[in-house]
């Protein structure tokens, strides 16, 4: 099947679907200039990926675990402050905008994202299940309150809450549980949708990677959009190979 005929078939399924759930990953923001986390082993990032994937140059266990933050909060905050600055300079791309448009078209629509960059919000998506948190949210280690903080750069590192407690990025780190209510909503959407669309994720990080198989077990069609083959590609009903910033607008407009 050519990409054009795959796209036509996928667009037909999307039009027919009453209930749609979408899972996005770092790849959807790659064309905006936000680094992804991982590239296929031994391959340099493509032009579309733009910037080297983060886990090529940094060790997740040094920066994105509760132990790393306990050991060296300043180092972890410096890294997040740098990423916040980088993301603040980026804009949503046509893929983000297409999904915001799809939310308006479908009565039953759920957007689930692993991304913490806030670009879906900036593109106009309203209801977003952020299963890995948000880089623009901070949580106090003492009073546990979560607030938004969009300052770039943060004036003092590590930042502190008005109660005096130290703030941490409200992001799910390796070894931590996902926010329970948000995760339950994501699972419910996967179980009840007719069509599950997956865009720009390597499909290797669990439990997020379990959502598409869950949707499929419950009878949904699964469509994947990715530049590369992933562990999900074989199980997807259609796997569209290419940049989400081009494929999503084509899929949703047609
Ligand atoms: P990854 O960096 O693991 O994967 C990005 C995927 O996007 C790859 O499969 C690329 O082939 C694909 N890709 C790159 N550019 C693309 C484009 N223009 N269009 C479509 N696809 C493209 O990112 P995630 O799967 O999101 O966790 O990673 C999952 C989690 O691992 C992240 O949420 C993060 C990370 O550690 C936390 O921050 C908690």
What's the arrangement of secondary structure elements?
Layout: H1 3-16, E1 19-24, H2 54-57, H3 60-63, H4 66-71, H5 73-88, H6 94-105, E2 108-113, H7 119-123, E3 128-130, E4 133-140, E5 146-148, E6 167-171, H8 180-192, E7 195-199, H9 211-217, E8 221-226, E9 238-241, H10 244-253
Parallel strand pairs: 1-2, 1-7, 2-3, 7-8, 8-9
Antiparallel strand pairs: 4-5, 4-6
> Share of helix among residues?
25-40%
In round numbers, the mean pLDDT is 93
> Helix-strand pattern, N to C?
HEHHHHHEHEEEEHEHEEH
For the largest beta sheet, what order do the strands appear in spatially?
Answer: 3-2-1-7-8-9
Cα separation of the termini: 18 Å
**Any idea of the CATH class of the largest domain?**
Alpha Beta
Question: What is the name of the CATH superfamily of the largest domain?
Answer: TPP-binding domain
- Domain module tally: 2
Cofactors and ligands? 2'-O-acetyl adenosine-5-diphosphoribose
| Broad structural category | alpha/beta
Report what the structure shows.
- There is one protein chain.
- It contains ten helices and nine strands.
- With 254 residues, it is α/β, with parallel strands linked by helices.
- A six-stranded parallel β-sheet has the order 3-2-1-7-8-9, with helices on both faces. A three-stranded antiparallel β-sheet has the order 5-4-6, with helices on one face.
- Helix 9 links the parallel strand 7 and strand 8.
- Helix 1 packs across helix 10 and helix 6 runs parallel beside helix 10.
- The longest helix has 16 residues.
